[in-house]
Amino acid sequence: MYIWIPHLLTDWLEVRKPELRGRPVIIRCRQHGRVIISAANTAAKKQGIFCGMTEADAKAIVPGLQAFDEIPGKEAQLLNAIGEWCIRFTPTVAVDMPDGLILDMSGCAHLWGGEEAYLKDLHTRLHNRGYDTCIAIADTIGVAWAMARFGGNGSIIAPQQHTAALLQLPPQALRLEEAVLERLRKVGFRRIAQFAGIKRAALRRRFGDILLQRMDEATGVILETINPLQPIAAYEERLACLEPIRTATGISIAIQKLLYQLCTRLHNEGKGLRYAVLRCYRVDHQIISTEIGTHRSSVNTDHLFKLFELKIPLLAPGLGIELFILEATIVEDMPPAQEALWRITTGNMESAEVAELIDRITGKISGAGISRYLPQEHYWPERAIKATRSLQEKPGTEWRCDRPRPTQLLANPEPIQVTVPVPDYPPMLFIYKSQLHNIKKADGPERIEREWWLEDGELRDYYTVEDEHGQRYWLFRSGAYSGNRTSEWFIHGFFA
Question: Which of 57, 231, 317, 446 has its CA 20 to 30 A from that of 240?
């Protein structure tokens, strides 16, 4: 597959500045003391602007022309970024300067339901991102390149039909230099089919070896190779074993070596580990794995090994493990720690000792055993808090302390039965899970309106109540009191 992006730089400008869409835009550069147009968008070309024209002549034709300076190396930067994004469609993507991408899609199209759906999905995604593309699929790179530029957008050449498709195209489709194309025009060749049958020796004498080379590459006689993009390597370390490992001691030594290599790399890049997966490949072709997580980024190999050490008894080596792979699936920037003149134990969330203690406890009782919550700017109680696993995340607002709030808040309010002396009064008693609670003290109501900009619904009137055993609860009536309907009551939380 070949992806041609004819207006790469101007499309990028329009993505950054949407107000430019539909207006004539050019990119200029200096050549030999003159300001030359190096790129123009579709709106500018429709009004007679073309690459190579001087800026003065272009502005004389289009007075409102928007001009921007060329950024050296921007085409390569953009194509690399788009190419890395295209790796989701195929692992082999190459950049073809100055405005194209080559995709080896062998064995990938069936995942999208065929070549047509594959091409359509890729074209739609790039179009939605703001890039105008012409895409073609063929057996060879040369024919895919030619069809993208001269055969119409969305061309799909059937297998073994690439030569026939190439013959109907102009000589420019062979990626020839302008000097060779000028000699072909002088002879009167307007299509490749007109000279494809001429003897090779005659073509070589008149037009040089480059014409034959390009024809051979396009028809598949010469295999054309590409230099694929190499995505950023994952944070992964591998350890192959000369002999299969079957003991806990051997597994421990392997994990320690992998952690040392991985943490050294992370430390050098200023990053820390948050989540890691260990995969063990056994000689019977089975894969066993385990994972660890931390509440703050860490490169402390001793601490990380203690977390893995809790998992070793769960790893069944079977006949032996021949390959260990340790991958840090989640990493975070790790700011350098400042050394203190004297040691002060604060015991707060900034303390590495506290974070490591929480990691060890979490590893023993599972991740659901420890939770951390931060306040959010919402009136509705269910949205006023959010869960987080990071100890370094800072709250965006302060905890609300002017009103009583329960220590344990139910994720979803649960219905209760109540007896109320007067409709707007607190309840005298309520039944929750078949248990009767006589209310001795009550405080309220606190009215909380529903956040209308998020959803519609009833308001709530909250009461803090205490039963005969001294236990305190957070109850509310849904909706304002109305004489023509029965109010619904719910329990929403428990105080300490």
Answer: 231
